[in-house]
Specification:
By secondary structure, the chain is mainly alpha-helical. It starts with a helix and ends with a helix. The longest helix has 29 residues, at 38-66. Helices cover 76% and strands 0% of the residues.
Length: 289
């Protein structure tokens, strides 16, 4: 495998939907309030992408160092564990990605002030602490809390704030949707990796409470966003369009509830990401209309 291919694999392109979708939803909401501009949107999207890639690289590096990624791994290939990139090189890539995120965010911090600085700085800090540092979030059952906040509520509301310099309550509630959907990605991973996580001392919810808990968590993360959309005071199209995504929801849920092998759960993971993307895009289109 070429070095470029290894870096692309390390960046985990399929996970970028979790970082970009809340920004897209926030942009759509701002557009509906006549506060959208392309320059700000581009900077937010690029900075969020760099933070996500940095987090992925940090995860690759730290999981290898902690022994969570071994030859028993059932999920997609991790470049450090597979020997495709040296650990020090992956660590350097992590630092570069986070540094680029900071540079891209400078105009955003100038516009949004300390709230944006706080969100960005803690986002990078927790991105590293997701599996790194003395108290890694992912090893202590706190990953869902981090994802719900930084890939949901703060990502959507922070994006909206950068456009209109306000914190609307409905933008905060709207942020729960991509955050909960992203927790579904975690749930699939946790169900699939229960055995290796337990051996590595990774106290995920599935390790702590069992596989059945993970199945219920996954189902809730898939279907709860539909109830939130139905409950919110949104324009008709914003309520109606996301409902069409439900046809993509049942397949992954059925697999997670009935299968235990790695390949099946990896397909469920891909299906979950696909459902998340379609739901979020349809919601965004509804907000713009």
């Amino acid at each position: 495998m070429s070095a470029l291919s290894a870096w692309i694999l390390a960046s985990r392109p399929k996970t970028l939907v979790a970082a970009l979708l809340p920004v897209i939803i926030g942009c759509a909401y701002a557009y509906s309030k006549s506060g959208f501009d392309w320059f700000t949107a581009t900077l937010i999207l690029l900075s969020a992408t760099c933070i996500q890639i940095g987090t992925n690289l940090a995860n690759d590096y730290s999981d290898y160092k902690k022994g969570a990624d071994t030859h028993e791994r059932l999920g997609p290939t991790r470049v450090t564990q597979a020997g495709l990139l040296r650990p020090k090189v992956v660590l350097a890539g992590t630092i570069v990605s986070f540094a680029l995120a900071v540079l891209l965010a400078v105009p955003l911090i100038v516009r949004g002030g300390w709230p944006i600085l706080a969100i960005g700085a803690t986002g990078i800090l927790f991105g590293w602490m997701y599996t790194g540092g003395p108290y890694p979030l992912g090893y202590n059952g706190l990953a869902e809390f981090f994802v719900l906040l930084y890939f949901g509520v703060l990502a959507v509301a922070g994006t909206v704030y950068l456009f209109i310099l306000e914190w609307p309550n409905d933008a905060l509630v709207l942020g729960l949707i991509p955050g909960i959907l992203a927790c579904g990605l975690l749930a699939v991973n946790n169900v699939r990796d229960e055995h290796t996580d337990r051996k590595a001392g990774k106290r995920t919810p599935v390790v702590r409470f069992g596989r059945e808990f993970g199945k219920v968590e996954f189902a809730l993360s898939v279907f709860l966003p539909y109830l939130i959309v139905a409950w919110m005071s949104l324009p008709l199209w914003s309520k109606l369009l996301p409902m069409f995504a439900i046809v993509l929801a049942f397949g992954p849920v059925q697999v997670v509830w009935n299968k235990t092998d790695g390949p099946s759960l990896n397909r469920a993971l891909a299906g979950t990401a696909r459902h998340m993307l379609v739901f979020g895009v349809l919601l965004s289109i509804g907000l713009v209309l």
